Structure formats: C-alpha cells, structure tokens
C-alpha cells in the first residue's frame, strides 16, 4: 500500500494540541493509577498503557462518536482516547457502584456503551471476533461507522485471530485491526514465540492491506489509520496496522521490573528518547501546554476524589445482571 | 402444562424448528441465521430449508468452520442489537465455541454492569446410532448448565421445539438450544401461529403416584414408553419433562418427588457432574434428610460411545432399562420382571436409517 506518511506539517496547531492533550492525559492518569496502587484502594489488577499511548491516540483521533472501539485488558488508553468517562473508570478500579461496569468488570473490562467502547477481554484475543460481530452489524445496517480493535502481540498467536481475519476479509467488514506489538507476552519475548516476525505478510495473505509502524510515531500511526478508515467508510474491507511499541512498566502492576532479567533498561531508554508525549509537548506553545497540563491534573484529582467518595455496591448487586430481562 | 391435541395440525420436529425461525425472521429484521451448511441443499436436515430463498444471503449465510471466531461474531452482533441464530450440525463442535460462550457470552451482561445484552441462540444437534461414535453423539448440555449466564433448553417434541425456539430468539440472553437428531422426524400437534413455550416451567407428561421420572430431551420419549409398560403391571410413573435445564423448574420436580418418595432422573448424557446429578442434589437439599426420597440416575454408560451397534446398544438408557430400574425401586430388587422386548423398541429408533 502506498501511503504518504504525514508529519506534523499537515496538522494545524489545534490538532497538535488535541493530540498532545490526549497523550499527556493518558500518561498522567496511568501514572496516578500507579502512584495510588500501593495504597490498595484500587481493587483490580492494572495493566498500564504507559509507553503505548500513541497507538490508541493516533488511531482514535480520527474516529467519530458513532465509531466503535474494542480493546484488550491493557485497554485504559483506548477507553480514554475514545472519550469515555475518567471518573467512571477510576471508580470501576476502586470497585465502586459508580464504576463504568458498576463494579463488576474492573480494570481489564472497561466499557462505555454511550461512547461506543464495546468492552475489553482478559482472555487474550477473545475480543477480536466480537469486534468483527459489531462490524457485521454496522455493515448490515448500512452504517458508515467503523470498528477499531486493539490487541497485543500475544493475541496474534491465537487461532481466533486468523479466523477473524479471514471472516472480516471475506465479508469486507469495516474493522481496523491494530496490533500493539510491545515484544512481550507477559515476560516471554517474540524470539521465543514467533517463527518469523513477518506479521504483516501473514495478514496480507488474507487479502487485508497491512502496514507496520516501527518507531511509535503518533503521526505515522494516525496517517495510516486515516487511510484505512477512509477506505472502510467508502465500503472497503478491513485493514491491519502493526505498531511496534514498548511497555515501560511491568506486565501487571504499577512498577518497573528491569531487575527481573528478562529485558534491559537500555531497551526502555531508546523508547524514552522517542517518547511521543514529550515530543508533542515540545511542539505546543509553553503557555498553552501549561494550561493543558493544569486542566489534566485537575481532572485527575476530581476523578480520584469521585471514586473515593462513591458508594460501594449494595450486596444485592452480586446477583443482578446474571441474566438480562 | 399439557400439549395441545385436538384440531391442531401435526408437524415434525424438524419442520417446527424451521417454522419458528421463519416466523421470527419475518417478525424481526434483526434476526439472522448463520453457520456451516445452513444454506446448502441439505439445509441442516431440512431445519433451515427455504430460509435462504425467502430472506436472502445477508440473513441466511454459511460460515468458514472457525467455530471460535464465529461464536465471537455472533456475540458482537448480538451486543450491537442483532439477534443471531448460530447453527452447528453437532453438539460436539460446541467445544470449539466454549471459550467465547463461557468467557464472553455468559459474562458480558454481568461483567459490563448490565450495559450490554447478548441475545443469541446456539443450535446444535445430538447424534445417536448410525455409527455416530465418539465425537458425533455427545450431549454436553451440563457443561453449559455449570456457567451462570447461559440458558440451556432441550425440547423433546415438535410443539416445544417451535415454542422454545421462538422464546429463545426473543430472549435477551445466550440460549444453548439442544436438539436430538432422532426427534427430528417425530410429530406432535403444532399450532400454525407463533407462540412461546416458557423457560423454567416443566411439563407433566404423565401422572403417577409411585415414582417421579425426570427425563431430558429424547429420554422423554423413552421414559414415556417405560411408563406405559409399567402401568400395565400397576406401577404408575409421573414423567416430567423439564424442557429447559437453565432455568430449571425444580419446584415441580421437588413437589412430585415429595409425593412419590422416589425420583429417577434419566438424562441423554453422562451422569457424572451432569443434569441428573444437579436435579437429584437439588431435590434432596430441598427435601431434607427426613423426606426419605429414594433416588436413581440413569444416562450414558461411563465410557465413550462406540459406533458398533452391538456395543452402542448397551451405551444408552432405553425403555427396558428405565422400566426395570423403576420396577426394582417399587417392587424390590428380588422381584423378577422383564418387559416385552418387542414393545421396548421405539419407532423413532427402529425407523431411523440416516442420514445425519
């Protein structure tokens, strides 16, 4: 696929500010989750998006309210980038009644039906065909909306991933598959799991255009996603985007784990040098940036205060929603 | 709850299934039917016949095998407001759907705090005889009963097949719809207009004071024959068809067992951790230690189903083994009795000559 890779040149100042705000906001929320986590007020295992924000932000920046987003258990970034409620997310992690899942999902299953965030799954890859089902419904209803589904490099080792690619291509479903390839399935590196790293070639054999972004550049991600999304809105079939990235913290939990021996801090440092939050922050006027940063901190404080002060679920809630009426 | 009879058209189970789906697809444009072979010339033994011509390929379509992903697609489409009916030619293939059914379909409404619903029907057929063997004759409904969030229904006659299918399509939850292949050719009185058969309400098939017999799926037919044979020697069995296993009308079963003080549960499945174990345990828990209810479970032998008919004949409960079990409970193990071998054979089994 021949796609011109845009740079910041094609975006105006408002675009840059919006993208910076989204990146910075997710980074700071996740850092605050990590800071609070040891207090045990968060009652849910957290898989932080720190370091991987640019993928969700770059793709979702081009989606509208009617478009659909599905994510994995490492799904805070996609949920937040789509405009879902931060207070409801924090309250969910606190196990409160006001959580986005009413305290019944936790960090790994964030949902926001009003924003078309369709939920997230902790059994790796299982949400991929579910996203295709949403795409099938959109197509049957002659909607121009599209689905973006995010997953990690572990998910592409599941059979259901390939089954989903085949069905989506066969039926020309409007679904953009986005692989956030951070190189590890929990602690196991790609070299111990993949016979070859030619993932895009594998996907392309299903008749799905596939592109790889190796450096985490939010503008490249956004540009490629934009091309795929435009094609899908025009009636084209699915697209695939592999974005190399890096998980800065441990697989699950708030901490770093570079002393564990399975990876090196020098690998992190390469990605820190290319950090998209810092990069875009440098492109925003200092006064404007300070204003954005202040607003983010205020929003985060309010969200955690909301979660703290929210009621716990009533015991009867254990039994509600087993079956739908 | 008794079945209608007078003046109502007789219809085969397989045609009742088809008619229910046709009427629901006419009623609701969000209903669609998919699965391997639903649109081919054999049309799932006729149960999807004519639906492609009537509703078109967007609403009636085959799939790649991909049972895992196709189940996920059904779930996603259901969450998005559609009402998929996903068809599998064998119950055994549902093992390939287990991850999606257990980890997503069953949990989505709860795990997402009630903000989504998963209205979908999963149809599958159970095989028997004709050399079906190890992987084409399993009845695995108890695996689905184990997981909160899934409904499980196993209608035993054409009337209930139609009514349960319409109920299942309109239900806002995933429904595992269990169909026994040998029932397809059986007829009962089936009203032409759409109607529902309520889940969680058992059907009393025969009244009796000596023993309560709970029979699942095609075992209802087998147990009703046993009941006929026993009634001729003065043993009166109350045969109950639960129709749906989740939700389960345990109150009706419990009330009957409290009266007869004898409970036999005959499942078309293994007994270990099965529907029969669940029904017996719940009745005894409700009845308490002083009720003195004698219980038996009958089901598949604790082995793998062989294709050889000489071996397979011993694998399943049948009217003879059911009747003799009940006879020994009522008259004692010393009382010798052998039902007429010509009369324990059931037409639906004798006449069946494939294909599946």
Question: What features would you describe in this structure?
Answer:
The complex is a heterodimer of chains A (325) and B (356). By secondary structure, chain A is α/β, with parallel strands linked by helices. Chain A has one domain: Rossmann fold (3-Layer(aba) Sandwich), CATH 3.40.50. Chain A has eleven helices and eight strands. Chain A has helices spanning 13-36, 53-60, 76-81, 86-93, 127-140, 159-170, 199-204, 218-233, 265-273, 276-281, 286-309, and strands spanning 68-72, 117-121, 147-152, 175-181, 184-185, 188-189, 210-213, 239-244. In chain A, the strands form two sheets. In chain A, strands 2-1-3-4-8-7 form a six-stranded parallel sheet, with helices on both faces. In chain A, helix 1 runs parallel beside helix 11 (286-309). In chain B, strand 2 (31-34), helix 2 and strand 3 form a beta-alpha-beta unit. Helix content of chain B is 34%, strand content 19%. Chain B has a seven-stranded mixed sheet with strand order 3-2-4-5-7-6-12, sandwiched between helices. Chain B has a five-stranded mixed sheet with strand order 9-11-10-13-14, sandwiched between helices. A two-stranded antiparallel sheet of chain B has the order 1-8. In chain B, helix 3 runs parallel beside helix 4 (98-105), helix 8 packs across helix 12 and helix 9 (250-260) packs across helix 10. Chain B has two domains: 10-189, 3-Layer(aba) Sandwich (Rossmann fold); 203-333 and 340-345, Rossmann fold. The A-B interface holds A 99-105, 109, 111, 113, 118-119, 121, 123, 126-138, 140, 159-160, 163-164, 166-167, 170, 320-325 and B 32, 58, 63-64, 66, 68-82, 84, 99-100, 103-104, 108-119, 148-149, 151, 172-173.
Q: What would you call the shape of chain B?
A: globular
CATH class category label of chain A: Alpha Beta
Mean pLDDT of chain A: 96
Adjacency order of strands in the biggest sheet of chain A: 2-1-3-4-8-7
The class by helix and strand makeup of chain A works out as alpha/beta
Portion of residues within helices of chain B: 25-40%
The CATH superfamily of chain A appears as Thiamin diphosphate (ThDP)-binding fold, Pyr/PP domains
Approximately how much beta-strand content do the residues of chain B carry?
15-25%
- The end-to-end distance of chain B, rounded to whole angstroms, is 32 Å
Strand tally of chain B? 14
Q: Beta-sheet strand percentage of chain A?
A: 5-15%
Number of helices of chain B: 13
Oligomer: heterodimer
User: What is the CATH topology assignment of chain A?
Assistant: Rossmann fold
Q: Could you state the order of secondary-structure elements of chain A as H and E?
A: HHEHHEHEHEEEHEHEHHH
Structural class of chain B: alpha/beta
Largest sheet of chain A: 6 strands, parallel
- Which CATH-level-2 architecture of the largest domain in chain B? 3-Layer(aba) Sandwich
CATH topology of the largest domain in chain B: Rossmann fold
What is the count of distinct domains of chain A? Answer: 1
């Amino acid at each position: 696929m021949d796609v011109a890779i845009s740079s910041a040149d094609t975006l105006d100042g408002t675009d840059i500010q919006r993208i910076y705000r989204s990146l910075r906001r997710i980074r700071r929320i996740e850092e605050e989750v990590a800071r609070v986590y040891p207090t045990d007020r968060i009652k849910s295992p957290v898989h932080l998006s720190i370091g991987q924000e640019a993928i969700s932000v770059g793709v979702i920046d081009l989606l509208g309210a009617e478009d659909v987003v599905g994510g994995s258990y490492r799904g805070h970034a996609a949920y937040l980038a789509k405009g879902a409620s931060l207070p409801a997310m924090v309250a969910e992690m606190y196990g409160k009644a006001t959580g986005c899942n009413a305290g019944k999902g936790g960090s790994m299953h964030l949902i926001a039906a009003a924003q078309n965030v369709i939920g997230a799954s902790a059994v790796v890859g299982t949400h991929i065909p579910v996203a295709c089902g949403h795409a099938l419904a959109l197509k049957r209803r002659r909607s121009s909306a599209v689905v973006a589904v995010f997953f990690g490099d572990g998910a592409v080792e599941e059979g259901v991933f390939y089954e989903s690619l085949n069905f989506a291509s066969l039926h020309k479903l409007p679904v953009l598959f986005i692989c956030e390839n951070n190189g590890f399935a929990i602690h196991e590196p790609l070299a111990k799991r993949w016979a070859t790293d030619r993932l895009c070639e594998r996907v392309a054999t299903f008749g799905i255009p596939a592109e790889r972004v190796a450096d985490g550049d939010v503008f490249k991600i956004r540009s490629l996603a934009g091309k795929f999304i435009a094609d899908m809105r025009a009636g084209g079939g699915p697209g695939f985007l592999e974005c190399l990235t890096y998980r800065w913290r441990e697989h699950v939990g708030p901490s770093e784990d570079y002393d564990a021996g399975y990876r090196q801090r020098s690998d992190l440092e390469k990605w820190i040098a290319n950090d998209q939050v810092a990069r875009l922050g440098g492109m925003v006027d200092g006064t404007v940036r300070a204003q954005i940063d202040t607003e983010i901190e205020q929003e985060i404080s309010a969200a955690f205060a909301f979660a703290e002060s929210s009621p716990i679920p009533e015991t009867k809630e254990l039994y509600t929603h087993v079956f739908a009426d | 709850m008794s079945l209608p009879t007078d003046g109502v058209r007789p219809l085969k189970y397989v045609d009742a299934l088809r008619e229910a789906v046709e009427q629901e697809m006419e009623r609701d444009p969000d209903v669609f039917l998919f699965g391997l072979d639903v649109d081919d010339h054999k049309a799932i033994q006729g149960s999807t016949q004519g639906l492609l011509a009537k509703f078109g390929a967007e609403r009636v379509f085959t799939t790649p095998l991909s049972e895992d992903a196709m189940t996920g697609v059904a779930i996603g489409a259901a969450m998005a407001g559609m009402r998929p009916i996903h068809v599998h030619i064998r119950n055994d293939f549902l093992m390939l759907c287990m991850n999606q059914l257990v980890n997503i379909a069953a949990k989505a409404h709860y795990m997402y705090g009630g903000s989504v619903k998963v209205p979908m029907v999963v149809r599958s057929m159970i095989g028997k005889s004709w050399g079906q063997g190890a992987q084409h004759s399993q009845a695995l409904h108890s695996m689905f009963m184990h997981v909160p969030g899934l409904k499980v229904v196993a209608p035993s006659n054409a009337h209930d097949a139609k009514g349960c299918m319409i109920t299942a399509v309109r239900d806002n939850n995933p429904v595992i719809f269990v169909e026994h292949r040998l029932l397809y050719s059986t007829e009962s009185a089936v009203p032409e207009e759409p109607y529902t058969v309520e889940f969680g309400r058992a059907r009393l098939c025969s009244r009796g004071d000596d023993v309560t017999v709970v029979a699942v799926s095609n075992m209802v037919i087998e147990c009703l024959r046993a009941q006929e044979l026993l009634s001729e020697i003065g043993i009166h069995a109350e045969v109950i068809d639960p129709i749906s296993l989740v939700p389960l009308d345990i109150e009706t079963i419990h009330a009957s067992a409290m009266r007869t003080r004898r409970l036999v549960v005959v499942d078309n499945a293994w007994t270990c951790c099965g529907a029969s174990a669940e029904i017996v345990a719940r009745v005894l828990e409700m009845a308490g230690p002083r009720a003195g209810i004698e219980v038996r479970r009958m089901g598949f032998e604790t082995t793998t189903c062989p294709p050889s008919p000489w071996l397979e004949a011993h694998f399943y409960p049948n009217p003879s083994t059911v009747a003799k079990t009940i006879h020994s409970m009522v008259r004692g193990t010393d009382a010798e009795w052998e039902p007429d071998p010509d009369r324990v054979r059931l037409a639906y089994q004798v006449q069946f000559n494939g294909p599946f």
